[in-house]
Amino acid sequence: MKAVRIHDHGGIDTLRYEEAEQLKLTSPTEAIVQLKAAALNHIDIWVRRGLTGIEIPLPHILGADGAGIVVEVGKEVRNVKNGDAVCLLPLSGCGRCEFCITDRDFMCVHLRVLGERMKGTYAEYVALPSQNCFPIPPQLSFEEAAAFPLVFLTVWRMLITNAELKPGEHVLILGIGGGVATASLQVAKQIGAHVFVTSSSDEKLEMAKNWGADHGINYRRSDFAKEVRALTGKRGVDVVVDCVGGDSWVKSLAALAKGGRLVTCGATAGANPQTDIQRIFWNHLKVFGSTMGSREEFRQLLSFMGISRIRPIIDQLFPLKEAAGAQRRLEEGKQFGKIVLQIAD
Ligand SMILES: [Zn+2]
């Protein structure tokens, strides 16, 4: 099969579009999916650069998100059959620890993610536990079905499970444009929240408004915490989505109303920022960290996608063999929404 693989960790030039060995089922509970599309995530870049702290056998196929058609199933598989169109839950635990047996695989010390400890989706085929294959929400194309699982699952856990976002609340989303930020915007608007977004790009702020954002703040021109306070009559927002960290962290705390919730799943601008403990206790703030989510949260999300008719925002499509160009766009932060690889038959 054709795949995009790395033989070494490093820069974009380590990505090779080449022939890889055909996949075989390694367990009676696995399925093989012929992929039609794969979506990019920052984890692909961390794995490519070798920054995850996880030793992986090389050569390795990147890619955590994908969608396609089931072409082979193990003897014990009952939930899918050949010919089913499926999207993929990207993570899987050991199945035995205290977290896995209570549907919290995302906390498993043996957690495996597609494209990280498992061979990924930048390929014509992927093998994975059949229980990670789910029917595609009816309105979505293969490209859209590949674009939503990782980021929307992460956002669902952050906004719905952890922050318990309610209709009518005010949300601030930092760094609009990335997959998590644009998914947060879509979910928050669908829930009926009032949404502020920040960016250094006026063009991205304008695009966010076209997707329903109520206010855009260019953080290069003004202090977003002060602006949010001014726009909310000094009250502040109920929820901040800050996957940026760095210099933004203290401002995110300052933008929150009393009892506000800050959710985070990343620190692209720095993981060891200055903080403000006094503000956290004095204002009764809650800080939630999370990565991805549970099967039950994925089930809730699929149901929500079906009923809300949300379609994930696609930034740009690339053919599989141009994965390097696609990753370059992600690394340069030029995207608004998800970058997707199309995989031809
Ligand atoms: Zn486990």
Please tell me the overall pLDDT. Answer: 97
Structural class estimated from helices and strands: alpha/beta
The helix content, as a percent range, equals 25-40%
Major beta sheet summary: 7 strands, mixed
Task: Give a quick precis of the structure.
The protein is an alpha/beta fold and 345 residues long.
Describe the structure in your own words.
With 345 residues, the protein is of the alpha/beta class. Helices cover 28% and strands 26% of the residues. It folds into 2 domains: 2-148 and 312-342, Quinone Oxidoreductase, Chain A, domain 1; 152-289, NAD(P)-binding Rossmann-like Domain (Rossmann fold, 3-Layer(aba) Sandwich). The termini are close together. Strands 3, 5, 6, 9, 10, 17 and 18 form a 7-stranded mixed β-sheet that branches. A 6-stranded parallel β-sheet has the order 13-12-11-14-15-16, with helices on both faces. A 3-stranded antiparallel β-sheet has the order 2-1-4, with no helix packed on it. The structure holds zinc ion. The site of zinc ion (ZN) has 8 residues, from loops.
Give keywords:
Quinone Oxidoreductase, Chain A, domain 1; alpha/beta; 345 residues; binds zinc ion; six-stranded parallel sheet; 2 domains; Rossmann fold; 18 strands
How are the SSEs placed, and which strands pair?
Elements lengths: L1 E5 L8 E5 L10 E10 L2 H8 L10 E2 L3 E9 L11 E4 L2 E2 L19 E2 L11 E5 L3 E3 L6 H6 L1 H14 L7 E4 L5 H13 L2 E6 L2 H9 L4 E4 L5 H8 L5 E5 L6 H8 E9 L12 H6 L3 E4 L5 H14 L5 E6 L3 H9 L6 E5 L3
Parallel strand pairs: 11-12, 11-14, 12-13, 14-15, 15-16, 17-18
Antiparallel strand pairs: 1-2, 1-4, 3-5, 3-9, 3-18, 5-6, 6-10, 7-8
Helix pairs in contact: 3-4, 6-7
The structure holds zinc ion (ZN).
Zinc ion binds next to loops.
